[in-house]
Amino acid sequence: MPGSEVGFVVDADAAGERLDVFLHRAFPDRSRSFLARAIDAGAVRVDGVTARSSLKLRTGAVVRFTVPAPPREGPVAEEIPLVFLHVDEWMAAVDKPAGMVVHPAKGNWKGTLAGALKWHLEREGGGLSTAGGAARPGIVHRLDRDTSGVIVVARTEEAHHALAKQFEQRTTAKTYLAITQGAPRLDRDEIDLPIGIHPYQREKMAVRRDHSTSREAVTRYEVLERYRAGALVRVTPKTGRTHQIRVHLAAIGCPVLGDGLYSGRTVIEPAFLRLPAGPPILTRQALHAASLEIDHPASGERLTLSAPLPADLEAMLAALRSAG
Fold it and tell me: Are 96 and 146 found together in one domain?
């Protein structure tokens, strides 16, 4: 029953099994990706501790699973403008605008990238991969709602697996531009801090060492410009943890500007920069996926997909420069 908690005691036959394999045997009607997302979201505890998919179970261990609601039917196609950076029969790449959720979820059933993709790509005779489930057509990776920039989607099942494998094996190269609140002390550095679920706020992640939800996370950055109130930073994450860039920049004392979760400030007013009164300068987190290097799933050609800095972030930079 969705929303209810079910419990299992691991018997000798299941000893040594990975947690995700064990759950898939218990819930054969749910996809492995659905169960993996539930585990990553902290819905599974083993002996009272939130566990990872790769945990090897021991005889007598108690597994408790808060069963999430199954995903709704796939998104409805919606006529929403999109800027395509690449389109062919295997894959597409889009410059996602800030404020757009990638796929339907609770509270965000409409206005999603997935719905817009269905309208643009299916009406011209093509389609989108369903390997990620009906609610996530074509979706191989994600960007946070208020992060703009490059995102790729798969149009066939084969392309989906080929693209997903590259993200899993870390053979892609992602570059972000971030405007930070405050400037990093060093011009360039590597942040190597594990990230797990926040101990008190479930919507947040946090730097956590030696916790069952923690995973290795590595981010490299370079300061491109410094201002009195912040900096423009080029960021290249080497791993792909949830909120990784946002958590890591906050951890060194320079959260992403306008990031309500990690900086406590969601709107940047002129007064923040000691400028004359006027309308807000920025109303979202200043994080942009500027480029992605990835191998084409059919030809193997290395593609470099780039998205220009959007107008709101350009305006924020202009304001920072004028403020000194």
Answer: yes
Number of H helices, E strands in the chain: 7, 15
Burial class (CB in 10 A: 0-12, 13-18, 19+), 283: middle
76 is a domain residue:
no
Whether 316 and 293 share a structural domain: yes
Instruction: Grade residue 124 by pLDDT with cuts at 50, 70 and 90.
Output: low
> Catalytic amino acids?
144
Separation of alpha carbons 288 and 300, rounded Å = 26
Structural domain ending residue among the three candidates 147, 168, 189: 168
Same domain, 313 and 183: yes
Regarding whether 182 and 200 lie in a shared domain, the answer is yes
Same domain, 281 and 162: no
What is the domain range of residue 19? 5-66
* 71 located within any domain: no
Is pLDDT at 171 greater than 50 in this prediction?
yes
Query: How far is the CA of 142 from the CAs of 72, 113, 126, 147, 224, in angstroms?
Result: 19, 10, 22, 10, 26
pLDDT, tens digit, 9 for 90 and up, residues 2-21: 456 788 888 888 888 899 88
Q: Are residues 141 and 59 in the same domain?
A: no
Q: How far apart are CA 25 and CA 28, in angstroms?
A: 5
Please spell the DSSP secondary structure of 219-238, one letter per residue.
EEEEEEEE-SSEEEEEEEES
Calculate the alpha carbon distances from 18 to 43, 46, 52, 60, 216 in Å: 16, 12, 9, 14, 19
Pairing state of beta strands 188-192 and 218-226? Answer: antiparallel
Rounded Cα gap, residues 96 and 160, in angstroms: 19
Work out whether strand 287-295 and strand 302-306 pair parallel, antiparallel, or are unpaired. Answer: antiparallel
Cα 209 to its chain centre, rounded Å, is: 21
